[in-house]
Amino acid sequence: MKSSKRRLEAELSEAFIKMQRELIGRGPQETRTYILEDMVIVRFKGVLTVEEKHLVEHDTGRKLVKQMRQVLREMYSTNIEEIVEKHTGCKVLSSHSDISTKTGERMEVFVIDKNLEKTIEQ
Length: 122
Fold this sequence. Notes:
The structure is a single chain. This protein is an alpha+beta fold. It has a single domain, classed as Threonyl-tRNA Synthetase, Chain A, domain 2, CATH 3.30.980. It is built from five helices and four strands, in the order αββαααββα. It has a four-stranded antiparallel beta sheet with strand order 1-2-4-3. A hairpin with a 2-residue loop joins strand 1 and strand 2. Helix 1 runs antiparallel to helix 4 (77-88). 20% of the residues are buried.
């Protein structure tokens, strides 16, 4: 059932937006979640704050923004992974995150313990 896959992807997106609003004070401009085999991939567009947009104009500022976002991600990695586990019913084996200071886009990739795409499409 493709619709249940889309529904789950939308639910995950909404949960991530809510968490980011609570954490940073604002949500991304756009969030898309993709379930691909044993991975959940989340793409956030427009995540930089006004202050961060100014900082990334300079080399030192770019490094600071990346570093700050990395520290925040590490601090809240358990909470972030719990969102995936709660909505998918799968265990997160590993997760990876990066932010582009050029585009203001952030990516999250979660590797889970089963091929979720296969089970929700049947």
